[in-house]
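Title: Prediction job returns without error message
Component: structure pipeline
Severity: low
Priority: P3
Assignee: unassigned

Description:
Job completed but the reporter wants confirmation the result is attached to the right record. Sequence as submitted:
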Amino acid sequence: MVAAAAAHVLVFPCPVHGHITCMLPFAAGLLGAGLHVTFLHSDHNLRRAGGADAQLATAAASSSPRLRYASIPDGLPVDHPRDVARIVELLESLRTKASVAYRSLLAKLVRRDGDGGGFLPVTCVVADGIMPFAVDIAEELGVPALSFRTDSACAVLAYLSQPTLLELGELPFKDAGDDLDEPVHGVPGMESFLRRRDLPSQCRDCVDPLLQIAYGFTAHSGSARALVLNTAASMEREALAHIAPRMRDVFAIGPLHAMFPAPLGSSSLWREDDGCLAWLDGQADRSVVYVSLGSLTVITLDQFKEFLSGLVAAGYPFLWVLRPGMVGASRNAAVQEAIVEAGNDKAHVVEWAPQRQVLRHRAVGCFLTHAGWNSTVEAAVEGVPMVCWPFFTDQQVNSRFVGAVWKTGLDMKDVCDATVVERMVKEAMESDEFRASAQALAQQVRQDVADGGSSTAEFKRLVGFIEELSTAAGRTPVATIKKDF
């Protein structure tokens, strides 16, 4: 077997905020294990996250001689909004246009004399699971490739279960008036608590092109050398066990941000407002509601007013992330209204926050969240109770697990009403049961990521797996061992 330093991994996240946020600490872990890493951005996001290519390359070289950043065009016009309403356009452009640039770059990086700078040739690709073309192209070029999914194992399992749901007649819903609380039995291990409303949001519209896309790239993970998930066995053991037989191998290696907390470049496409930490310093312990609906959620002005009225009625100080574009052109007016309604001393509004630092701050009592997987595991690590208002895709399943499985908070999906917001925020802030469950889950997850924990052991196994693949350079079959979770 070659030495670890001979393994050179190309890490390629889908160019959206949450996926980059998840895969940067993964890259940091690979570096810490002695591997070389090329982290592949889109040109658009590289400019937003780190400035000019030369500046990021210099920063990478100074942080580690085994790290570099590269970028390719995503195929969209410079002025394309790249927002949630046009996410299918981004995925299609990546598949049809960015894939051409990716193939060309990877072909150069696998040649010993093709990449310059004395860097070793790429010997393995870890590509975002929602970009199956990246796995296929790598294998065609003789480079072994792994699929990395940035969402939860329970969501991956729900997507994989689409054929069973169709066979049982649980999809499609017969009409818009169908009872969303009707139980769903076609997702293994979730028969006792899953409802129609808890399935990924695309399931509510079976002509939604994103549903077939999501199923397609999830099933495709079975053809990759392995599936990598940013999760812990203590959180999703049963889902992992149901996924494993359908993959060549599965690695549960998270939460990655807790395993590898040292920053590796910037993942944020907005400037984080550190001033909110000073504001939190001035608040009492567990007195603040932290509100962030993630990097893609958009809300109407009416929904904003319902959230605001409920937060004000709850009576707690709140820190609210209202990023540009989240409430359309009304953001500036919305910020002013929030501050006036709550009072200057009770509301602090920012465009973007250093979320992990916020969640571990002593002043934060609960988290009103969209239940994106990054946010869910970040709250889990810190033991913070949640109120979940999922927006789309995997967030629907995640929020059900928060409320019905882990019991670390409340699931507020499909409701945007001030009285409900007030009631649920109060309950999350005041419930000893939620806090005890959140703290117990945090303790379990911290054990998973500590030395000797399940996630740490899985990451070491993954590094060995990559080293083995790199030795063969993907040209011979690699036997895999099924993992029992």
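Comment from assignee: result matches the submitted record. The chain is about 45% helix and 10% strand.
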